Amino acid sequence: MIYYYDSKGTKYKGKIHICPKCGREKVIRASRNPTFCKKCMIGTRKTDVKDNEIYILESDRKRSRAIKVKCSICKREYLRRKNHRCKTSICKQCICNHNGKLSYKNGYGSYVERAINHYGKICSICESIKNIEVHHIDFDRTNNEIENLKVLCKSCHKKVHWKERKKDPVWMKAFRENRSGEKGPSKLTKDQVRKIRSLYPKYSHKQLAKMFNCGGSTIGHIVNKRTWK
């Protein structure tokens, strides 16, 4: 009688399995029927990526197979997921132009990479390494020359843009008129907030959120006087 022991030392009925690919013999559990051994199994599953294939790293753990596609508008080659539902081959930059959104001269990825390679991946103000972004010094997003780019962290980038917005009297006037009280612009007005507090016992948070087109947590904060004190 052959027995198989797992990593915890549990005892099972076993059998000898011979791999048809490499001819290796190994004791496995009697209930299992694998085709190949673990070494020969690599590259045969759907989730495995072979050495000769191209793939896109979407995150640290997730990766998907990719193919090289030529854009039908600008004729530039780019990587696209193999199982992508979209049948048309148009790159992101051309889609932005087609939809009327702001598109960058040299492409978003290219100017970010150039700035980080030139200045290093560190904030030029606070020397932070986290949440790195690239700032346009003259605030013109189409001017992607290396002299016009600056590497900043997310916090410093917001501060720089806030200082610039303060100089615009029209924007500041609209900001002050639509100011909630403490933190910033709000959808609700003072009259609406008073009405929410008067209607609260009769209507639930969900009902009030639908009536005033806002979130349920916003209603909760208003009712409990965490905001709009």
In short:
The protein has 229 residues and is α+β, with helices and mostly antiparallel strands. 31% of the residues lie in helices and 18% in strands.
Proportion of helical residues: 25-40%
Distance between the termini: 78 Å
Give the ordered list of helices and strands: EEEHEEEHHEEHHHHH
**SS-based class:** alpha+beta
What is Rg?
Answer: 29 Å
The number of distinct helices, counting runs of at least 4 residues, comes to 8
Side by side, the strands of the main sheet go 1-2-3
What features would you describe in this structure?
The structure is a single chain. By secondary structure, this protein is of the alpha+beta class. It has four domains: 3-41, no CATH class; 55-99, no CATH class; 108-166, no CATH class; 175-223, no CATH class. Helices cover 31% and strands 18% of the residues. The protein has helices spanning 38-41, 92-99, 108-119, 154-166, 169-177, 190-199, 205-212, 216-223, and strands at residues 3-5, 11-18, 25-29, 55-57, 63-70, 77-81, 132-136, 149-153. The strands form three sheets. A three-stranded antiparallel β-sheet has the order 1-2-3, with no helix packed on it. A hairpin with a 5-residue loop joins strand 1 and strand 2. Helix 7 (205-212) packs across helix 8 (216-223). The longest helix has 13 residues, at 154-166. The chain is extended, with a radius of gyration of 29 Å. It starts with a strand and ends in a 6-residue tail after the last helix. 6% of the residues are buried. The model is unreliable at 180-184 (pLDDT under 50).
